[in-house]
Amino acid sequence: MDYQKIISSLNYICREYEDINLIKDVLNSVNSNQVKSKTWLVDECGEYFIDRSNIIIAAGWYGLLGHLIKQQYNVEVTTFDMEPTCADVGKILFPEIHFKSNYIENEKCSGHNIIISTSCEHVEDDVINDFIKTKDEGSIVILQGNNYYGVDGHTNCKDSLSHFCESYNLNIIKSTELNMNHYTRYMLIGF
């Protein structure tokens, strides 16, 4: 990852937006835990990125995961978030990614052969299940969530990997977890 580019982009964002809360949010999006969980996904799921070329990331924030996937596998990545500022800032940080602003309830994942959300703790199960119902047959779904209850906005945490897997209407190929010291991150891959 080109940290100098990120620092330069953050300096530009500071001058352009002059919003300290936005700056804190952008910094949080590239903190060590975010990098660790996104890198874990890229490493664990690499075999799926090789044969598939069109990825959509739901609730993708400012685009860190999309950037890491694009950097390693040079595939087409679209990321969307409900906050329009995420797309505006994301285009500055990671211009090689396609950004959209949309609610997951209004987005369709058909036309993409990998569907990802690493924000399941922020979105209700029925919303995620309705979203993945719109996928094409044979598309791979990769979901991450956690048991980190102490964060505002974490309205859909799970107590265990099995509870996480049971929440989604998928044929699961693989499920795994990652100890993040103060919480556990869950990941499943299915179709």
Q: What does this 3D model show about the protein?
A:
This protein is α/β, with parallel strands linked by helices. The chain has one domain: Vaccinia Virus protein VP39 (Rossmann fold, 3-Layer(aba) Sandwich). 41% of the residues lie in helices and 21% in strands. Strands 3-2-1-4-5-7-6 form a 7-stranded mixed sheet. The longest helix has 15 residues, at 3-17.
Share of residues in helices: 40-55%
Low-confidence blocks of residues: none
CATH topology: Rossmann fold
CATH architecture: 3-Layer(aba) Sandwich
N-to-C order of helices and strands: HHHHEHEHEEHEHEE
CATH class: Alpha Beta
Structural class: alpha/beta
Largest β-sheet summary:
7 strands, mixed
List keywords for this structure.
191 residues; Rossmann fold; 7-stranded mixed sheet; 8 helices
Sequence-ordered SSE layout with sheet pairings:
Layout: H1 3-17, H2 20-29, H3 32-44, H4 46-51, E1 54-58, H5 64-73, E2 76-81, H6 84-93, E3 98-101, E4 114-117, H7 125-132, E5 140-146, H8 161-166, E6 172-179, E7 184-190
Parallel strand pairs: 1-2, 1-4, 2-3, 4-5
Antiparallel strand pairs: 5-7, 6-7
Question: Briefly, what is this?
Answer:
This protein has helices at residues 3-17, 20-29, 32-44, 46-51, 64-73, 84-93, 125-132, 161-166, and strands spanning 54-58, 76-81, 98-101, 114-117, 140-146, 172-179, 184-190. By secondary structure, the protein is an alpha/beta fold. Helix 1 packs antiparallel against helix 2 (20-29) and helix 3 (32-44) crosses helix 5 (64-73).
